[in-house]
Amino acid sequence: MIPKNVRIKNNELPDAPGVYLMKDAKGHVIYVGKATSLKRRVSSYFQKAHDARIDEMVSLIRNIDYIERPTALEALILEANLIKYYWPKYNIRSKDHKSFLYLVITKEEYPRPLLIRGKDLEVDANKQYKAIFGPYTSPKALRSALDLVRKVFSWTTCTPGMKRPCFYYHLKQCPGVCIGAADKKAYQKTIRDLIRFFEGKKDGLLKSYRREMVKASNENRFEEAAAYRNKIFFLEHIKDVAILKKEDIDVDKIKPGEGTVNLFGRIEGYDISNISGTSTVASMVVFEQGAPAKAEYRKFKIRSVNGPDDVAAMREALTRRFRNTWTLPDLLLIDGGKGQVNIANFVVRELGYGIPVIGIAKGPTRKKVELVCDEKHLDLCKLCEQYKDLLVQVRDEAHRFAIAYHRKVRSKKLIDPNA
After folding, report:
1. Which end of the chain is less congested by CB atoms within 10 angstroms, N or C?
2. pLDDT, greater one: 349 or 211
3. Same structural domain for residues 262 and 407?
C-alpha cells in the first residue's frame, strides 16, 4: 500500500502503459521509469523488499507523477527522453551513465540506426550522427522495439556493394541498400520518419501518412496508397509484447509446484501436422523476451507413429527434443488440448525436468483460445490469462511452421513414395 504522505497524480494510478516520475519533497525528479501497468509497477515499490539503493529512494518519494502512453513501446521511448531531460539521481546511481545504451542514426549516404554505449560516444558525436536517442535502461527492450518498428521503417544496417541481398531484404525489412536496389530519396524519408517516431511524434506521423494515402489514392497510385494504409494500421495497432520486461511487472513469476515461470524468458511452442495420419511432422518454435528467436526453431519428422495419433506424435517430438543439449525452456506451450498437455507433462517429469506446460485448445476454426493446464498447475492458467496475446502468437507461429514443413514432406512423398 502506498503511504499517505505520498501524493499521486489524480489520486490513483491507471492500469495502463506509461512512464512514472518519482519526486522528492522539493519537487525534484529523482527517478523515471516505464511500466506496462503503472498501477502494478509503482505499487510494487512499496510492497516488496528491495536493495539499499531502492529503499533509500522510496524513503524520499513524496510525489508521483505519470504520463500514460498507448503502448509499452511509446512508454520506452518517452522514458529515455525524460531521463535525458531530467537525468534523475537514482537512474544514474543505478548504472554508470557511460554504460547506458544509445540509439544513433549515422550521417551516411544511406544512414543506419546503430546501438552504442555511452562510453563509445565521441565528444564530437553530433558531427558524426544525424540523431542520438537515449539513454535506454533496457538494452533488450530497445532491440525488441527496433525489430518491431522495422516493419514500418525498413532501414538497413548494410553498406552498399554486397554481392548478395541481406537476410532482411528477403523479409522486406531492408530496401536493398546492400545490392543497390534502394531508392535513395525514399530511404532518406524512411530515416526521417524513424527519427520522428523516436522523438515521440507518432501522432504527427499518422497525420502525415493519412494525408499521403489520400493523395496517392486520388492520383491512382494505389500500391503506394496501400503501403501507407498498412503503415497506419500498424502504428495504430502496435502489438508490443516483445517490449515487456520482467522487471516491469510484479506478477511475472509464479510457483505452481515445481520451478518458476518466466513468461519473458524462453517459451517453446509445439504443434503436430498431418493429413489422415500420413506425413506426420512436429514443429518447435522459440520465443525469447516475447519475440521469435528463429535461429532456435526445430522440426521433427515423426517416425514411430502410424495413423492419426497427435498425442503419440507429441511424445516422440518432445522425447527427441530433450535428448539434445539445447537451452531448456521456461515454459512449454502445446497447440492442443488435455491429451497433448498430459503427455507433455509426462515426458518432462519422466526426464526429471520441472518445466511448466500449458496448452491452447484451438477448436475446429482455430479461433478458440482456451488455456489448458493439468489439475496440479491451475495457478499457471491464471497467470497466463494475462498474457494470452503473447501465447497465441507462439501457438500460431508453431502452427505455421508445422504446416510449412508438412507440405514440404508431403510434396517429396508425391515425387518419391519412399522419401
Report:
1. N
2. 211
3. yes
